[in-house]
Amino acid sequence: MKKTWAAYPYIFWIIIFTIVPMGLLIYFSITVKTPTGTIISMDNFRRFTEPIYLKVLARSLTLAAISTVCCLLLGYPAALFLSSRDLRHKNTMVLLMVLPMWMNFLLRTYAWLTLLERKGLINTLLGKIGIPPLNLLYNDFAVVLGMVYNFLPFMVLPIYSVLSKIDHSLIEAAEDLGADPLRTFLKVRLPLSLPGVMSGITMVFMPAVTTFVISRLLGGGQYTLIGNLIEQQFLTVGDWNFGSAISLMMMLIILIGMGFTSRYEKEQEGGGLW
């Protein structure tokens, strides 16, 4: 006898915290308040196509893309190093990679303020060697740096998971056939690790494009990203209808991106050597 009752708490959770909020989001997004009452309208979505909001969206996508590329360039070598069979204390190294994630996200971001500010630790050290203070805070550099620091583990761990499961006999076969380390990497390791790379890109890009804490703290409020815009509509302006429409548009962009990556991962199942 199937114990379907065991699924009831999960179903209840999904209804209360997923279906109901989603229904409210859709309701607010397709309604507009008028002097005579609330009417159904698509004006909230049309409003999002105004140049000022498209500019915010473009800036968010650009900074998220830059952060994702930086995470990939830093994360892939780190994952490759962690997956090495000759690495001693591998579990300790992985723990050190995950350890910062145990701290509060807001606290980690605040820590960068003390490092990057005009009289912070970095500028203080630079001053001791005769370099004048640098403007490291409240700019694109600070926002991207905050994103890379907070989301880098999301890139490293999926790639590490895939690399550590690669059949080492394939690498040995390539070496026995005369492939040098670079060719072995390009022909064996890299193609087999692409599903992990795509998962890492998804896990970094999605939160980066919707973040609002990092841009608010490290950007000093000068860089309005799409996450800040949604927050302002709900908490400052009080326009829940427009905020809901923006949220749905971002959900659509994220779902499209996840659709492309999941399709690619299915095509790469089983290895997919070049």
Short description:
By secondary structure, the chain is mainly α. The chain has one domain: MetI-like (MetI-like fold, Orthogonal Bundle), CATH 1.10.3720. The protein contains 12 helices and 2 strands.
Describe this structure as you would to a colleague.
With 274 residues, the protein is an all-alpha fold. It has one domain (48-267): Orthogonal Bundle (MetI-like fold). The chain has helices at 8-29, 43-47, 51-82, 90-98, 105-116, 121-128, 140-164, 168-176, 181-210, 213-218, 226-237, 240-267, and strands at 31-34, 37-40. It has a two-stranded antiparallel sheet. β1 (31-34) and β2 form a beta hairpin. α3 (51-82) packs across α7 (140-164) and α3 (51-82) runs antiparallel to α9. The longest helix has 32 residues, at 51-82. It is globular. The termini are far apart. 28% of the residues are buried. The model is unreliable at 270-274 (pLDDT under 50).
CATH architecture: Orthogonal Bundle
Q: Could you give the order of the helices and strands?
A: HEEHHHHHHHHHHH
**% residues in beta strands:** under 5%
Order of strands in the sheet with most strands: 1-2
Overall pLDDT confidence: 87
Uncertain regions spanning at least 5 consecutive residues:
270-274
Count of separate structural domains: 1
Q: Termini separation (Å)?
A: 48 Å
C-alpha Rg (nearest Å): 23 Å
What is the CATH superfamily?
MetI-like
